[in-house]
Design brief:
mainly beta, Immunoglobulin-like, 2 domains, 23 strands, 5-stranded antiparallel β-sheet, 52% strand
């Protein structure tokens, strides 16, 4: 597109009154298709060490050769996935960023100066190796592509599922008061336990585990300590009351055929005499499960006064 931006007597008008455009092209109509690979059945994702190849096909349906063609492709790598440097066929004119490994970034691939003969097509490929992936899985997104520029639509969007191929299970245990007590009282320490179980013969690396705790308005607890300590707690510091607390452990390694125990510990600072309940709302590997599978309850109350002493 050639743009005649402006005109004027003596000087340019500074407006769009005289703006016009002149469309130009080779007169050759090109179309583009993209194919993201699928894992080989029965696998549902690509695993660490697998090679992935994305195919783009430029089709010339006209009787004239298309010369000087540019094709672009964009790939998005999430935070907990790492891939190798890219190889392309034919060699891309520009890969940005130019070298891997890549993680938590977008990669733009640009081929320039291509010739697509009349009534024919050319296949372009992008190939890389999965270097790291979370056990719970994630997705590499081939975001967009286009001839000359990215299309700006989801026409060329496709996804590539990746994981370590290791299946993990999670168990949560909320503590119970020591009989004959039926609730935890002010000053007592409470420990929530989560167990991550790796039943596979391969180590699970880069594992993320999350846990969510709801503290009601009439209960107050201390700051939370975790084991292992490489966790993110939000809000980061207590005391907590009338809030939800999210605990995230990242970068965990669960050895093959073993279990990793995680704990979250806090102290009851205040509770109503008639009792209240701290709800361990949810947990999950990677993300919260969104179900009540990991929901449990921790009853709390103030120290019960001696018999005969009024409560108010």
């Amino acid at each position: 597109m050639i743009t005649n931006l402006d005109a004027g007597i003596e000087v340019l008008s500074g407006t769009n009154l005289f703006a016009c455009t002149i469309p130009v092209s080779t007169g050759v109509f090109l179309s583009l298709t993209k194919v993201c690979p699928a894992p080989i059945f029965p696998n549902t994702s690509f695993t660490v060490g697998d090679t992935v190849t994305i195919n783009l096909t430029v089709i010339n349906s006209e009787s004239t050769d298309a010369i000087g063609v540019t094709v672009v492709d964009q790939i998005r790598i999430p935070l907990n996935v790492q891939i190798s440097s890219l190889t392309t066929n034919p060699l891309a004119a520009l890969i940005s960023p130019p070298t891997g490994p890549y993680s938590n970034t977008d990669i733009l691939i640009t081929w320039t100066g291509l010739t697509i003969p009349a009534f024919s097509s050319q296949v372009l490929t992008v190939t890389f190796t999965i270097l790291a992936a979370p056990s719970q899985g994630n997705v590499i997104t081939n975001v967009d592509a286009g001839i000359e520029v990215l299309s700006g639509t989801n026409l060329f969007t496709c996804t590539i599922p990746v994981s370590t191929g290791v299946l993990l299970n999670l168990i949560k245990v909320c503590p119970t008061p020591t009989p004959p007590n039926t609730s935890f009282t002010v000053g007592e320490t409470v420990t929530i336990t989560l167990a991550v179980i790796n039943s596979a013969s391969t180590n699970a690396t880069g594992v993320t585990v999350v846990d969510a705790i709801n503290i009601p308005a009439n209960v107050q607890i201390s700051s939370i300590t975790t084991n292992p300590v490489n966790s993110l707690i939000g809000p980061p510091i207590g005391p907590y009351s009338d809030t939800n607390v999210l605990i995230i452990w990242t970068g965990l390694t669960i050895p093959a055929l073993s279990t990793r125990v995680l704990t979250a510990t806090f102290t009851i600072l205040a509770a109503p005499i008639r009792g209240g309940v701290i709800t361990n709302v949810d947990a999950g590997i990677g993300v919260l499960s969104g179900t009540d599978q990991f929901t449990c309850f921790i009853p709390v109350s103030a120290i019960i006064p001696q018999r005969g002493i009024p409560l108010w």
